[in-house]
Amino acid sequence: MSNTADITAKNRAAWNASAQHHGRGAYWEELKTGFADPTYSRFDATFTEALTQAGIQGASAVQIGCNNGREVLSACALGASHCLGIDQSEAFLEQASELHGLSSHTAAFLRADIYDLPQDTPRDFDIAFITIGVLNWMPDLSRFFTSVASLLRTGGQLLIYETHPVLEMFDPAADDPFTPVDSYFRSEAFVETAAITYDGSTPEDVPESHWFIHPLGAIVQGCLDAGLNLTLLQEFPNSIREVDYDKYENQPAQIPMSFLLVATKG
After folding, report:
1. 76 closest CA partner among 34, 28, 47, 41
2. Angle CA(155)–CA(165)–CA(235) in degrees, nearest 5?
3. How far apart are CA 99 and CA 92, in angstroms?
4. Across the chain, which distance is largest between two alpha carbons, in Å?
5. Which of 21, 25, 59, 156 is the most exposed place for a label (fewest CB within 10 A)?
6. What's the pLDDT tens digit per position in 206-233?
7. pLDDT tens-digit series, residues 140-154
8. Cβ–Cβ contacts within 10 Å for residue 106, how many?
9. pTM of the model
10. Helix or strand (DSSP H, E) at 94
C-alpha cells in the first residue's frame, strides 16, 4: 500500500469513528429541521456570493469532501440543477442520506477515495467546490487537484473556500496562543488520535488521523499544474473553522484566517 493510500485509509477510519459525535445534538436537529425547507442553506454570505457569481443557478455541481451532505444540499438550495457529494466516510454519508431524505433536492452521494475514483464517476460538472476542512487531509496535493480537475468539463470552475494555512501555525490551546508553534513550511504530517469534532469538545480517542499544512503557494501551484487557470484569490481576516480559533479575529495585527480561490478548467 502506498503512503498516500495508507494515510487516506487511516483518515477514513478516524472520520468514521468520529461521525457519531456529529449525528446527534442540537446542531444535528437544526440541520434536520432546516433542510425540510428547500431554501435552507448553510453557506455564509461570502461563499453564497461566490457560488452565485460562478453561476450555480441551473448548474451541475460536485463537492469533494462533502461530509454529512449539508453543503451539497445548500448548493441545491442556491439553484444547482443537481449536485454530487463525494466523501470516503460511509458513516458521514449515512447522515447525508438522512438529510437528503428530509429535503426535496436532487442530489446524489458517492463513497469514494478522491485518489481512486470509480471509472463511471461523472466528469462533466459545471462547478466543483471544496470547503473548510478538506485540503489539510490530503497527503498528495498534486494528485488531489488532478483528480478534482478531472471532474470538470472544459470551462468548468473550481471554488475553494478554506482555512488560510497561516492559521495552522498557531495553537489556540497553547499558553501563549498568539506565538507561532509550527512552521508555515512544515512538510511532515500531524498525527492525532482525538475524535474529529467542530465544537471544541474533546471526546474519546479514535484511530489515528494525519493532516498537513499546505502553503497557499502550493495550493495555487497544484491548481495550475492540474490545468486550472486562476481567476480569483481573496484572503480574509475571519475564521470559518472551529470555535477555538475565534480568538484570532479582530486583532491589532491581523493574520489571514481564510481564503477564497476560483479557477477555471482550460
Report:
1. 41
2. 60
3. 11
4. 51
5. 25
6. 779 999 999 999 999 999 999 999 999 9
7. 999 999 999 999 999
8. 11
9. 0.95
10. helix 90-102
